[in-house]
Design a protein that fits this description.
Length: about 650
């Protein structure tokens, strides 16, 4: 009888029930083997890799009717075992027969296994022919349908009633580095082991039900004469905890040239190449299985459309949009891009509707590109959604939404996180002679290792570091904002050079220069042109250092050296721990009366002053009248002298 499922069946059954029924064989005998007592309650079953906190229930479905053991080099080994449903309740026998038929078996009505489904399971489903006791085809059992049988059995009402009435429960505990659950003093025979814990107690799915026989005889013999036969009385829990690993593989600039960001981390404008890897999960016991790989990123990491590729094993899969309604499954992967509001988090969902047809533990690879479009702190997390409970599994209406009722019990776990950040500094250009007056128009360069860096202009007085090639023009000179919007949105009136007096709560950009997108390191800020209103002002130069602030998950910015002796104040760290603000004092003015008058008039006519008083124009008129009177007097005296 050939009921093989092919390669997928081989792999799945190797982790499913077929691996553990070798103790139920018939017909392997030896002339020197001796029978042992299997009637006592001295059987043991140990479940390895059980998972801390998982609760297991054991229910006997068949008895050992006899067993032969032979000593090999002083070690007792099991030569043969026969199992039967003798003594089992009629309802349980019927449940076993029903499950066998549901899984595709035909239980004989005559012969050695007449009306004895466990006898039949113990032989045919391990690959043996009852008429050929010398058959050496036991390994064929790994291609059988035992996984189907034991899953169907769990669904039978007769089995559930029996399990509830007489099942023995054990909770897995840590022992010698192995989280295991051990059942002792069991009547020797064949058992179904159920994981009855709450789904995902330890982050893994519940184990599928498994079939295993107890140890044999008073000496608790577990090893078979045939070396490839799994031990009696021992079984690995068939649970699974899928995970996904994420790696940043390489980086290119906007024009596709590969750049090295090993030291700095990703920077603004970079295109990052990511690789996600997972494995085809254990789907044994499921009729339908939900499996999805997710990739969630903050708003400053944008997916490059069309860049994603998916491979399972050596086969590249077609990426298609999620269908509006259930369709016939094809060997393709659903790709969905979503954005959450108001945080702007972006998620890529890769759903695998064909997952049960892939080879167990084959490698799943996903690669895609993403562009860094914002500065600051960025996070990127990979996770997985998967079915966790064979008792509540997806049905045919489950498409790509794990929260839908049609998808059964689905667990989500984030298993790999990638984060990085770039930082900023703000330069506030204050008039050193007039309090709270900010000056615009000054020009600066930012140097690293003595070389000026290139920047992209984002707006008035706002620049971002942009290494590598860019599709738009870059500059090495940054200009302090000269925007003349007054305090609280009022328009400034300026009769002289652009300058503004700001209230403490003002958000104006006049006199500000924001330099963003900076990695950790030491920089030199070099002023190359003075403010527009003070053409003779001293040019500033100072060194700053950006170091990691571990306690606040950010950066600490410090002033290393002020080459202009006191004109640069110590920085104020920003509240978001992503930068700092420097206050710069512009001190020197043009000499002479006009320069002094210009300074006075600009201070008087600042919009902050205008906003607070209605006499500014009157004061200016008085000053002008005084000047005119002085000039008139001088001219009269000169005229009198000339006469």
């Amino acid at each position: 009888m050939n009921i093989s499922k092919g390669l997928r069946g081989v792999a799945a059954a190797a982790l499913g029930a077929a691996t553990i029924l070798a103790c139920g064989i018939i017909g392997i005998g030896s002339a020197s083997a001796s029978p042992v007592d299997v009637s006592s309650n001295d059987g043991e079953i140990t479940i390895h890799s059980a998972g801390a906190g998982h609760v297991y229930k054991a229910l006997k479905i068949g008895d050992y009717t006899f067993a032969n053991v032979e000593e090999v080099s002083g070690t007792p080994k099991i030569a043969s075992i026969q199992t039967s449903t003798v003594g089992s309740p009629a309802t349980l026998k019927q449940a076993i027969a029903n499950a066998a038929k549901s899984a595709g078996a035909t239980v004989p009505t005559s012969g050695q296994c007449a009306s004895d489904p466990v006898c039949w399971i113990s032989s045919h489903w391990l690959g043996y022919d009852l008429d050929d006791p010398s058959s050496a085809s036991k390994d064929e059992g790994y291609k059988g349908h035992l996984r189907d049988f034991v899953t169907k059995l769990q669904e039978e009402p007769g089995f559930k009633d029996a399990a509830d009435a007489s099942g023995i429960s054990k909770t897995a505990v840590e022992a010698n580095g192995d989280t295991s659950a051990t059942f002792t003093n069991l009547p020797e025979g064949l058992y179904v082991i159920q994981d009855v814990s709450e789904a995902s107690v330890d982050g893994s799915s519940n184990s599928i039900p498994v079939l295993v026989g107890t140890s044999v005889g008073p000496n608790k013999c577990k090893t078979f004469m045939k070396a490839t036969t799994p031990n009696a009385g021992e079984v690995e829990a068939k649970k699974d905890a899928p995970s996904v690993d994420k790696k940043w593989v390489s980086t290119t600039d906007e024009e596709g040239t590969e750049v090295d960001r090993t030291q700095s981390g990703p920077l603004y404008g970079d295109v990052m190449h990511f690789n996600l890897t997972a494995k085809v999960p254990v789907t044994t016991g499921f009729n339908k299985y939900f499996f999805r790989v997710t990739d969630t990123a903050s708003s400053g990491i944008e997916y490059v459309s069309g860049s994603a590729k998916v491979r399972v094993g050596n086969s590249e899969k077609n990426l298609v949009d999620v269908p509006a309604s259930p369709t016939a499954q094809a060997d393709e992967v659903y790709l969905e891009e979503t954005t959450s509001n108001p945080d702007g988090m972006r998620r890529l969902n890769f759903t695998f509707p064909y997952i049960m047809q892939y080879q167990l533990h084959d490698k799943i690879e996903i690669e895609y590109d993403a562009k860094v479009t914002q500065t600051g702190r960025q996070n990127n997390t990979a996770g997985v959604d998967w079915s966790t409970d064979v008792r509540n599994q997806p049905n045919g209406n489950c498409v790509a939404d794990p929260s839908a009722s049609d998808c059964g019990v689905v667990k989500h776990v984030d298993t790999s996180t990638f984060s990085f950040a770039t930082y900023n500094m703000v330069l506030k250009n204050y008039d050193g002679e007039l309090q709270n007056v900010l000056l615009g128009g000054a020009k600066f360069q930012l140097l690293k290792d003595g070389k000026p860096l290139e920047f992209k202009k984002l707006g008035d007085g706002s620049y971002v570091y942009h290494p590598g090639k860019a599709k738009s023009s870059l500059t090495k000179e940054m200009t302090v904002s000269e925007r003349k919007t007054g305090v609280q949105g009022a328009r400034a009136i300026s009769f002289f050079q652009p300058r503004v007096r700001l209230a403490a709560d003002s958000n104006e950009s006049m006199g500000n220069l924001k330099i963003d997108g900076l990695p950790l390191g030491i920089y030199t800020v070099s002023q190359i042109a003075p403010p527009t209103s003070k053409p003779n002002a001293e040019l500033l130069k100072f060194d700053v250092k950006f170091t990691e602030d571990v306690s606040n998950h950010g950066v600490y910015v410090s002033l290393l050296k002020d080459y202009t002796q006191g004109l640069v104040q110590q920085p104020v760290q920003n509240k978001d721990h992503l930068g700092a603000t420097f206050s710069l004092n512009v001190s020197k003015e043009p000499s002479g009366l006009l320069g002094a008058l210009g300074s006075i008039s600009n201070g008087i006519l600042g919009p902050g002053t205008l906003a607070r008083t209605g006499v500014s124009l009157f004061i200016l008129l008085i000053l002008l009248c005084c000047l005119m009177a002085i000039a008139t007097t001088i001219m009269r005296r000169r005229h009198q002298i000339s006469r």
